[in-house]
Design brief:
heterodimer, A: 372 residues, abc type-2 transporter like fold, 2 domains, B: 260 residues, alpha/beta, Rossmann fold, four-stranded antiparallel sheet, 10 strands, 38% helix, ABC2_TM (chain A), transport (chain A)
Chain lengths: 372, 260
């Protein structure tokens, strides 16, 4: 262990003198967390709405008002025909078109069922989905409540089923509650894996690795000495991140924070070990960086933060079972938002532990003091 | 510095058995034979010059003896440890300094000494003691907190040499240690080598400077992976009937096929 201590001392001294790396480790994650948490937003506001009102009735006007009262839509065009409004859609002036057909009011009063048409630009299908669901809920609410009271009384029996969702663990569907823990572990993984990736191979490029390889240092001591400084840096980032999550983003922390820390400590060994493994098999920093990016991009895009993993084809989900981010994000959300205990998250925790053991064993094994 | 007598080895070498032995040591990379069945012995306290043109296989042979590269066949021991089976045990007993400067440039002089001392398992008190002595000897006491990267090359190399001797190894391997430094610094460097040899450390050195070859007790010359000549500098000159090591070297190296 004494040898590891000397290695640690050396790594920390080098780190302290490397301003840019230090900044990357200590400041960048905080800036990224703040920036991304405000920016990565699933709420869409100010969608451009074009309207084709062919009814010109008070009921139609009331419906339009409903749209304008929300922050989600901004009326940009009123067109006499669908054709003209479609052109708005085509030219990108409008994100969606609401067509109110003739006899809208009459149908509404008579049968309680009136139809409107929504044309949505689905170039960006997330935006399109949100736009149409916002619009539908406005229309539905209008149909439910917007009719004259006298009419409503007579047609109440023909109203269909109403679904009242209850959102558990995140009742207000606050996207920050959902995103912040995920973004946090994602940023930390990215940074610690990067610095680990560049570390050993950098000593190869400079030539100092050869001097170390003629010393009696043990392989596990070497890897441990490389891993620990960045492991501490990762936990530091996590601490700051949790404080920001709590006090800036008001993410609820229902479960045990110490438990999450412990699990995070296990998790960090996975990206770190993988980075060191890549670093010890690479010949140049450039090569190491590309290999690392290959893994990181897959990890990040398939971790469930941006696309729900449930939507993925079965083979992709099978591959994704090797994605450490998938587990830690799930665990972090469950502990913070739902108050899960260690027993609840035992399976993913053991999976992470297994991954940590495997990648670090591989890193020690693949680090060669004696070549071919 | 006075010109060192070349037969000094005789007295020192007899003190103990050979520190390095090689029998038919071979390294192949695919079809290419980098080191082709070399055999020699180096006695304790001897300064052994390992010469050869670039590409002759010097560095490959040296890396095998240091436990950095696995040999293909043959047999070799360094400080009593088998090169095939105990490459890690060898490392406790050798010092190594390569042509590629290998101290940490972003650590100070003292931090480098402390780090390598620690990695070789020296006690804290011993590290402190040796640091003071080393700085004194090199005249670097005033620079102890200077980053190694900002030292002149000659100083760096003297420091690297001294750091490689910190754990008192039986053998030190020097791979072109004086490349790129001025003649005065080279002379000073050789003073350090003689001091170490006088303490009984075996010196295994590769060089391209023929004047340095003259300083060695014995010199081997590698050509195309084989050792074509091995004797004292005086013996070699006599053998080839020439006046300088330069001519000995040119005579042998001219026949080489694997020249970079």
């Amino acid at each position: 262990m004494r040898t590891v201590w000397f290695l640690l001392e050396k790594e920390v001294r080098q780190l302290r003198r490397n301003r840019s790396l230090l900044g990357l480790l200590l400041v960048a994650p905080i800036m990224q967390l703040v920036l991304l948490s405000f920016a990565a937003n699933y709420e869409i506001k100010n969608l451009n709405l074009a309207v084709v009102d062919q009814d010109h009735s008070p009921a139609a006007r009331r419906l339009l008002n409903q749209f304008q009262y929300t922050p989600y839509f901004r009326l940009v065009q009123t067109r006499p025909t669908s054709r003209a409004a479609e052109q708005d859609l085509l030219d990108g002036r409008a994100d969606l078109v609401l067509v109110i057909p003739p006899q809208f009011e009459r149908d509404l009063v008579r049968g309680g069922r009136a139809r409107v048409q929504l044309l949505v630009n689905a170039l960006d299908n997330v935006k399109a989905g949100l736009a149409s669901s916002y619009a539908s809920s406005i229309v539905q609410a209008y149909q439910g409540e917007g009719r004259p009271a006298t009419v409503a009384a007579t047609v109440s029996e023909v109203r269909g089923l109403e679904v009242v969702p209850a959102y558990w663990y995140n009742p207000l569907l606050n996207y920050k509650t959902f995103m912040v823990p995920g973004i946090l572990v994602e940023i930390i993984s990215l940074i610690v894996m990067m610095v680990a990736t560049l570390n050993i191979v950098r000593e190869k490029e400079i030539g100092t690795i050869e001097q170390l390889n003629v010393t009696p240092i043990r392989k596990w001591q070497f890897i441990l000495g490389k891993l620990l400084p960045f492991w501490v840096a990762g936990l530091y980032q996590f601490t700051i991140g949790l404080l920001l999550a709590r006090f800036l983003f008001h993410v609820p922390m229902v479960g045990s924070v110490p438990l999450l820390y412990g699990i995070m400590a296990v998790f960090l060994a996975v990206p770190l070990g993988l980075g060191l493994l890549i670093s010890s098999v690479s010949q140049t920093q450039q090569q190491a960086l590309f290999v690392s990016f290959f893994f990181l991009i897959i990890f990040i895009l398939l971790c469930g933060l941006f696309t729900p993993t449930e939507y993925m084809p079965a083979w992709a989900r099978a591959i994704d079972r090797l994605n450490p981010l998938l587990y830690i994000i799930d665990i972090a959300r469950r502990i913070l938002l739902k108050g899960s205990t260690l027993r609840d998250v035992l399976t993913p925790v053991l999976t992470l532990l297994g991954m940590a053991v495997v990648v670090n064993t591989l890193a020690v094994w693949r680090y060669r003091k004696t070549s071919g | 510095m006075t010109n060192p007598p070349n037969n000094a080895a005789a007295g020192r070498a007899s003190a103990a058995g050979p520190v390095i032995t090689c029998q038919q040591l071979t390294k192949r990379f695919g079809d290419f034979v980098a080191v082709n069945g070399i055999s020699f012995e180096v006695a304790a306290g001897e300064i052994f010059g390992f010469l050869g043109a670039n590409g002759a296989g010097k560095t490959t042979a040296m890396r095998m003896l240091c436990g950095l590269l696995g040999p293909t066949e043959g047999a070799a021991t360094v400080a009593g440890c088998d090169v095939f089976r105990e490459p890690e045990r060898i490392k406790q007993h050798i010092g190594y300094m390569s042509q590629k400067f290998s101290l940490y440039e972003d650590l100070t002089v003292r931090e480098n000494i402390r780090f390598y001392g620690g990695v070789y398992g020296l006690k804290t008190a011993a590290i402190r003691e040796k640091t003071t002595a080393l700085l004194q000897r090199l005249g670097l006491a005033a620079e102890r907190d200077t980053l190694v990267g900002s030292l002149p090359l000659g100083w760096k190399q003297k420091l690297a040499f001294s750091v490689a001797l910190l754990h008192e190894p039986a053998v030190i391997f020097l791979d072109e240690p004086t490349g790129g430094v001025d003649p005065i610094t080279r002379r000073q460097f050789w003073d350090l080598i003689y001091e170490a040899a006088a303490r009984g450390v075996t010196i295994f050195i590769t060089t391209h400077y023929m004047d340095e070859a003259e300083y060695c007790d014995r010199v081997s010359i590698m050509v195309d992976g084989r050792i074509d000549a091995l004797d004292t500098p005086a013996g070699l000159k006599r053998q080839f009937g020439v006046a300088s090591m330069d001519e000995v070297f040119l005579h042998l190296a001219r026949g080489a096929k694997n020249v970079e």
